[in-house]
């Protein structure tokens, strides 16, 4: 995740209090903005909605927002407090603060989703998967496959036929593209495009 | 001469290969990344008996011979099926079983044969032929108990493009390499260098010392400079094979003996078959029964250094050193591959070794 998993201090049926720390290497900051990193408002809203989803252990997505105000910029590594309380079914008032200063507040109507609502995460991982697939296709000069048609769960060794030197080449291009280092000892773990993409996202988000 | 060092922070790979000479060499060597080797002991017999011979150490020398050509055909077909593209035919003396070597060549057309060169291997077996040399003829007589070795070897492989002579440096034959290299150069033949690497439990005098390594380094550098057309070697080969640290300490050996992973690379595909056509993962490497801490063997380096591409891609100089090494490896092992001029004319420290090198 691009932030550390929320820690919940107080949860009742209708209220929650959670703490979240935004990762310094969150991909949000690379484009927003490179020289002046600020957490976008959509990310703050998503964080509040995910905290409620996790507390309720349900997959919820934002259906409507109202009275939303952004009052303070959120910087990399900042620790945030999220408070939310239900005024009626699925309708929450929420407030995000940082060191007692208001960051963001408003109301959000949530609705159950059939699939896990990890929209931002999903977009991120899908983009990484597509990029990794493109790198593999280009470097190995694979034919009859495109980044969108490349099954990210194919076993790269058993089903695609790549070997350690191929993987080392791919790792070098990934190093260039994503600015991460792939440890040689990790090669044996990188068996599918999806696993490589998750590895990249984890590294980019400050994971080991 | 000073020794180059690699930078702490990796330069982007695209910037490293932006240099036209590096890019050209990179494109040249990467075409051979499909090579996947395994090695095969062909017979438990040899026509000479050398001190410190790796074959006649450990259990493998006691494996029974399998001379059944059908069994060898089935084995090589299975090897090809599981993706092996390069066969190394070794112990004890493959030239004594040319019919088996021929079967290997029929199934896997790329490969190399390690031989003492006293019996010619038929020309139709178009593998690289590695002919072992352990000093001048007087020294060979003492260590290998065979007389006139070099003239006999040269007679068998004169004008043979398969042949490369492999000179194994011991503490006692270092200066003799000059004489051997000159003779081979005059004969239009090629030479590469190997280091005596002690078998497990070996207590004899051939184990290298810090002094003999330094002396070897000097002679290798001299011969590489003087005979660039004859000597298939690079400055980085010298660094990798004459360090007081062995190959495993410098590069982390990737052969199954030292590498528990079976997921990818040598740990997954490499096997070392004994003469009974069985193999043991715990003993599998290109020179079984060698003391890993003392291993500087040319065959080991060819796989171990080559496999460590990623860690050499830190800056153009370190990557160029690695390319020189791989270019040398391919020229020594693959028929039809022609070595280019070395990109570097000076030594470079191995990455992450933290090992200052003795200036040449």
Main attributes of the structure:
heterodimer; A: 208 residues; alpha+beta; Thiol Ester Dehydrase, Chain A; Non-ribosomal Peptide Synthetase Peptidyl Carrier Protein, Chain A; 2 domains; 36% helix; B: 360 residues; alpha/beta; TIM Barrel; disordered N terminus; disordered C terminus
Q: DSSP helix count of chain B?
A: 14
H/I helix tally of chain A = 6
Helical content class of chain B: 25-40%
Helix/strand/pairing category of chain B: alpha/beta
Chain oligomer state: heterodimer
Q: Poorly predicted ranges of chain A (pLDDT <50, ≥5 residues)?
A: none
SSE pattern of chain B: HHEHEHEEHHEHEHHHHEHHH
Care to describe what's here?
The complex is a heterodimer of chains A (208) and B (360). By secondary structure, chain A is an alpha+beta fold. Chain A has two domains: 7-112, Hotdog Thioesterase (Thiol Ester Dehydrase, Chain A), CATH 3.10.129.10; 119-203, Non-ribosomal Peptide Synthetase Peptidyl Carrier Protein, Chain A (Orthogonal Bundle), CATH 1.10.1200. Chain A is built from six helices and six strands; from the N terminus they run ββααββββαααα. Chain A has helices spanning 27-31, 41-56, 119-140, 156-160, 164-178, 193-204; strands at residues 7-11, 15-21, 60-70, 79-88, 91-98, 101-112. Chain B has 360 residues and is α/β, with parallel strands linked by helices. Chain B has one domain (13-333): TIM Barrel (Alpha-Beta Barrel), CATH 3.20.20. In chain B, 37% of the residues lie in helices and 10% in strands. Chain B contains 14 helices and seven strands. Chain B has helices at residues 13-16, 20-30, 69-81, 98-107, 137-144, 149-157, 176-186, 210-226, 235-242, 247-251, 266-269, 298-307, 309-312, 316-333; strands spanning 37-41, 86-90, 111-115, 128-133, 163-169, 191-195, 272-273. In chain B, α2 runs parallel beside α14, α3 runs parallel beside α4 and α8 (210-226) runs antiparallel to α9. The N and C termini of chain B lie close together (6 Å). Residues 1-8 and 354-360 of chain B have low confidence and may be disordered. The A-B interface holds A 157, 161, 163-169, 171-173, 175-176, 181-182, 184, 187-189, 191 and B 10, 12-14, 30, 33-34, 36, 83, 252, 254, 261, 263-269, 306-311, 313.
């Amino acid at each position: 995740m691009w932030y550390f998993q929320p820690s919940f201090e107080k949860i009742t049926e209708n209220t929650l209090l959670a703490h979240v720390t935004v990762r310094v290497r969150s991909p949000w900051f690379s484009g927003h903005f490179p020289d002046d990193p600020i957490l976008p408002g959509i990310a703050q809203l998503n964080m509040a909605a995910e905290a409620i989803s996790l507390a309720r252990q349900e997959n919820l997505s934002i259906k409507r927002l109202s009275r939303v105000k952004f009052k303070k910029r959120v910087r990399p590594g900042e620790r945030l407090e999220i408070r939310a309380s239900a005024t009626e079914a699925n309708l929450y008032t929420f407030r995000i603060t940082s060191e007692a200063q208001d960051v963001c507040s408003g109301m959000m109507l949530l609705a159950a989703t059939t699939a896990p609502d990890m929209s931002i995460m999903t977009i991120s991982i899908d983009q990484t998967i597509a990029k990794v697939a493109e790198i593999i296709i280009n470097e190995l000069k694979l034919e009859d496959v495109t980044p969108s048609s490349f099954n990210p769960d194919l076993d790269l060794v058993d089903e695609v036929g790549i070997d350690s030197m191929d993987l080392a080449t791919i790792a070098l291009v990934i190093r260039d593209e994503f600015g991460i280092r792939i440890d040689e000892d990790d090669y044996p773990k990188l068996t599918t495009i999806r696993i490589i993409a998750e590895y990249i996202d984890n590294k980019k988000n400050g994971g080991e | 001469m000073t020794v180059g060092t690699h930078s702490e922070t990796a330069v982007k790979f695209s910037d490293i290969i932006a240099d036209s000479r590096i890019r050209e060499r990179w494109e040249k060597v990467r075409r051979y990344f499909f090579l996947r080797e395994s090695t095969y002991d062909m017979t438990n017999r040899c026509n000479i008996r050398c001190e410190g011979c790796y074959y006649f150490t450990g259990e493998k020398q006691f494996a029974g011979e399998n001379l059944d050509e059908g069994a060898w055909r089935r084995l090589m077909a299975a090897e090809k099926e599981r993706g092996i593209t390069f066969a190394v035919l070794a112990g004890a003396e493959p030239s004594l079983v040319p019919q088996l070597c021929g079967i290997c060549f029929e199934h896997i057309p790329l490969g190399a044969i390690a031989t003492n060169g006293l019996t010619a291997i038929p020309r139709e077996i178009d593998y690289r032929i590695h002919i072992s040399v352990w000093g001048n003829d007087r020294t060979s007589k003492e260590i290998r108990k065979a007389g006139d070795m070099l003239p006999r070897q040269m007679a068998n492989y004169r004008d043979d493009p398969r042949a490369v002579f492999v000179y194994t440096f011991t503490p006692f034959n270092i200066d003799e390499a000059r004489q051997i290299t000159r003779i081979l150069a005059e004969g239009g033949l090629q030479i590469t260098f190997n280091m005596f690497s002690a078998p497990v439990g070996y207590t004899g005098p051939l184990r290298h010392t810090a002094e003999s390594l330094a002396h070897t380094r000097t002679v290798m550098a001299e011969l590489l400079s003087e005979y660039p057309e004859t000597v298939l070697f690079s400055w980085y080969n010298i660094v990798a094979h004459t360090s007081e640290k062995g190959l495993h300490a410098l590069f982390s050996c990737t052969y199954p003996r030292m590498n528990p992973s079976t997921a990818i690379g040598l740990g997954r595909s490499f096997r070392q078959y004994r003469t009974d056509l069985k193999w043991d993962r715990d003993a599998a490497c290109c020179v079984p029964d060698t003391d890993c801490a003392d291993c500087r063997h040319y065959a080991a380096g060819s796989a171990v250094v080559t496999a460590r591409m990623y860690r050499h891609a830190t800056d153009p100089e370190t990557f160029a050193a690695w390319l020189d090494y791989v270019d040398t490896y391919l020229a020594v092992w693959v028929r039809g591959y022609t070595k280019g001029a070395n990109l570097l004319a000076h030594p470079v420290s191995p990455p992450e070794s933290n090992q200052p090198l003795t200036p040449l």
